[in-house]
Each structure stands twice: as structure tokens, then as C-alpha cells.
Amino acid sequence: MSKLILKDNPTLADYQIYVKEMVEERGFEKEKLGDIFMLFLEECGELAKAARKNAGIKFDAQSKVHAVDEEAADVFMYLLDICNHLGVDLEKAFRDKEEKNKKRSWTK
Questions:
Q1: Is residue 85 predicted with pLDDT exceeding 80?
Q2: Into how many domains does the chain fold?
Q3: Cα separations in angstroms, 18 against 4, 59, 89, 92
Q4: Tens of pLDDT, residues 21-45
Q5: What's the CA gap between 57 and 52, in Å, rounded?
Q6: How far apart are the C-alpha atoms of 82 and 25, rounded to whole Å?
Q7: What secondary structure letter does DSSP report for 63?
Q8: 4 belongs to a structural domain
Q9: For 106, left (φ over 0), alpha (ψ -120 to 50), or beta?
Q10: CATH of the domain at 41
Q11: How would DSSP label each residue in 19-36?
């Protein structure tokens, strides 16, 4: 049974810490970055398939399709795990990158 607790109204940093603790609790802390990245991409594909189904786009009726919200959560968890492996503070990186993006011109 898990002892992990994600506090109410968590920040992005709280999620990142939670994923670090989750990985350790479940015994995945020795996973290599390349393996995690492949799992991340696999989950991205599953999210795309779930989004296709959700959008009413044709898909193989015999293929296993999960709920779009669950697949999005899986992608988020693996992204945070990748950031933890690389020492990236995702909240800071997001804020810094968005400040750069605010200064860009966006055209059609």
C-alpha cells in the first residue's frame, strides 16, 4: 500500500516531487533515461489514440483504447520523471520559456 500523499491544490513543483517519491516507492529509481523516454513516447501514442476516439476519428475497433484523461496523466507523469532525471525544474523552465514566448510575434 502506498504511503504517498499529493496535497490539495499542488503546484507543479509538488507534482514533480510526488513523481520522484512515487518512482522510489515503486522501485523504478534505477530506470535509465532512454527507457523512460521510450515509455513517455508510448504513452504519447496512447494519448493520441484516445484523443482520436474522443474526436470521433476512425480507429481499429479491436485495438485497446484507454480514457483520454488517464493517458494525459500518464504522459504528465513520465514527463515529470524525465525532468527529474535531467535535473530540470519544470515550473521554472515553463515560466522562463513563457517569458521568452511572450516577446515573440505570432502570425498566421
A1: yes
A2: 1
A3: 7, 35, 13, 17
A4: 999 999 999 999 999 999 999 999 9
A5: 5
A6: 17
A7: S
A8: no
A9: beta
A10: 1.10.287.1080
A11: HHHHHHHTT-TT--HHHH
* Cβ contact 80:15 at 8 Å: yes
Range of the domain at 88: 13-94
The per-residue b/e assignment along 60-78, b for 16 or more CB within 10 angstroms, e otherwise, is eeeeebeebeebbebbbbb
Q: Give residue 47's identity as a one-letter amino acid code.
A: L
Residue 79: enclosing H or E segment and its boundaries?
A: helix 68-86
Please, what is the end-to-end C-alpha distance for the chain in angstroms?
A: 51
Inter-residue contact 54 to 71 (CB < 8 Å): no
**pLDDT tens digits, 93-107:** 999 999 999 999 988
Confidence of residue 7 (pLDDT cuts 50, 70, 90): very high
Average pLDDT of every residue of the chain:
94
